[in-house]
Every structure is written in structure tokens, then in C-alpha cells.
């Protein structure tokens, strides 16, 4: 796995930083890849945690942490405004798959959120139980299945996504919940249809067009 991540890390040097999302794209979090919290005052921004991924030693993941209590760093959310933006339907992407692990003491409801010309939308939640091992989750991102958080046109947003978020919220919310907790995410994948996700998960980086 370490060798694979090194190869993809090298290939990413050849990809423009502002390149948009593509079908079969995968993020294995060897680096931050543009993921952050959007605030320089966040005391616990999303960070790469080495040797923490589903494969153990040599497999990194992204740790997302919130301290609750209001203010900077209180919401459980990570965002990206570069590598995961663009035209999802135009690329044939109708779902996102991810490996998730809850490090907190309460169940989490993980959602993927999108912002674009049509406003803000989130997916249905994936329930991730507390203190369990890694699990695979699939998020249907077709416009008809997205939930509005004030947006008016999901199709317009998904055709020109400007921001993607991974967040926890039991309610339909673009901001993420104010909570003291943390989770890990790895192997974020852009796939063509929900039933294809397991094939991509099993094949891993061999099916990627490029590593993010």
C-alpha cells in the first residue's frame, strides 16, 4: 500500500491543482489533497493520520475532529474547494463511496454536502456506530436524491459544484453538527452507479484514473 500511495503521489504532481472531479477518482489521503476546515482559526483542522487506514501500517486516512461548544472548530466537518469540484453528472458520477470509522462515543450521521449555482444540498445520512472498525458506505448523489438545505436546483449545483463537504449531522444541515467527536475517512471514490461501488472498493487504486 505504501508503494501504491507513493506512485499516485508522484502522478499527482503531473495533475493541475485546479483539475475538476473525474469518474473513478479516488482519494486515499496520502496528503490533505485540498481538504480543510475553511477557517484559519480552527484549533483542530482536518489532518492526515498515518498508519490509521483500513489496511493498517502504511495506510493513512483523514481525521476530522470537532470540540463542540460553539465557535471555531465546534462543527464536525471537512471541506474541499478544488479537487472534488466540477460537473458530476457530466462525468457520469452518480454516487460517492467512502471508508468511515467513528472514533467518538456516540453514533454519527455522516453526509456529503455540495454547494453550487443551484444552492446547497446534502445526501441522506450514513449511520456510523461508535467504536466500531472501518465500514464501507455509499452516498447516492443524483440530484433527485439530494436534500435541500436552502438550495433550489440540485441539478444546477451538481453540474458545477464549487464546494464539497464531509460532515456529521443528524438533521439536514450543510454546516455540520456542533459536537465533541471525531471520525476517520479514507478511500473516497467517485463511481458511476451504486452497485459498482463494491467492485471499486475491492479493486482499489488499480481502477483509478488519478489519485487525489
Written description of the protein model:
- This protein has 212 residues and is mainly beta.
- It starts with a helix and ends in a 9-residue tail after the last helix.
- The protein contains three helices and 13 strands, in the order H-E-E-E-E-E-E-E-E-E-E-E-H-E-E-H.
- The strands form two sheets. Strands 2, 5, 7, 8, 9, 11 and 12 form a seven-stranded antiparallel β-sheet that branches. Strands 1, 3, 4, 6, 10 and 13 form a six-stranded antiparallel β-sheet that branches.
Could you give the topology of this structure?
Layout: H1 2-12, E1 26-27, E2 35-36, E3 47-49, E4 61-67, E5 77-80, E6 95-102, E7 108-116, E8 119-122, E9 126-128, E10 135-140, E11 147-148, H2 154-159, E12 163-168, E13 180-191, H3 197-203
Antiparallel strand pairs: 1-13, 2-5, 3-4, 4-13, 5-12, 6-10, 6-13, 7-8, 7-9, 7-12, 8-11
Features:
212 residues, mainly beta, 7-stranded antiparallel beta sheet, 6-stranded antiparallel beta sheet, 3 helices, disordered C terminus
The outline comes out as: globular
In DSSP terms (H or I, runs of 4 or more residues), the helix count works out at 3
Helix content: 10-25%
The chain-level structural class is mainly beta
How far the N terminus sits from the C terminus, by CA atoms, comes to 15 Å
Mean pLDDT: 87
Strand content: 25-35%
How would a crystallographer describe the biggest sheet? 7 strands, antiparallel
Q: Quick one: how many beta strands? A: 13
SSE sequence, one letter per element: HEEEEEEEEEEEHEEH
Q: Compute the gyration radius: what is it?
A: 16 Å
Query: Which segments are poorly predicted (pLDDT under 50) over 5 or more consecutive residues?
Result: 1-18, 196-212
Amino acid at each position: 500500500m505504501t508503494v501504491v500511495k507513493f506512485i499516485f503521489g508522484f502522478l499527482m504532481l503531473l495533475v493541475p491543482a485546479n483539475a475538476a472531479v473525474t469518474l473513478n477518482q479516488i482519494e486515499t489521503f496520502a496528503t490533505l489533497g485540498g481538504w480543510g476546515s475553511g477557517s484559519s482559526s480552527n484549533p483542530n483542522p482536518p489532518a492526515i493520520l498515518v498508519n490509521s487506514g483500513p489496511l493498517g501500517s502504511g495506510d493513512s486516512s483523514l481525521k476530522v475532529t470537532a470540540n463542540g461548544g460553539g465557535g471555531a472548530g465546534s462543527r464536525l466537518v471537512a471541506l474541499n474547494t478544488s479537487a472534488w469540484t466540477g460537473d458530476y453528472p457530466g462525468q457520469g458520477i452518480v454516487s460517492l463511496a467512502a471508508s468511515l470509522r467513528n472514533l467518538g462515543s456516540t453514533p454519527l450521521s455522516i453526509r456529503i454536502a455540495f454547494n453550487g449555482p443551484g444552492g446547497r444540498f446534502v445526501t441522506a445520512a450514513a449511520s456510523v456506530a461508535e467504536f466500531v472498525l472501518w465500514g464501507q458506505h455509499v452516498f447516492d448523489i443524483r440530484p433527485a436524491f439530494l436534500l435541500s438545505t436552502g438550495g433550489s436546483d440540485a441539478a444546477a449545483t451538481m453540474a458545477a459544484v464549487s464546494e464539497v463537504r464531509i460532515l456529521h449531522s443528524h438533521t439536514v444541515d450543510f454546516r455540520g453538527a456542533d459536537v465533541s467527536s471525531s471520525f476517520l475517512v479514507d478511500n473516497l471514490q467517485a463511481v458511476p452507479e451504486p452497485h459498482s461501488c463494491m467492485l471499486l472498493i475491492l479493486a482499489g487504486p488499480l481502477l483509478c484514473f488519478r489519485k487525489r
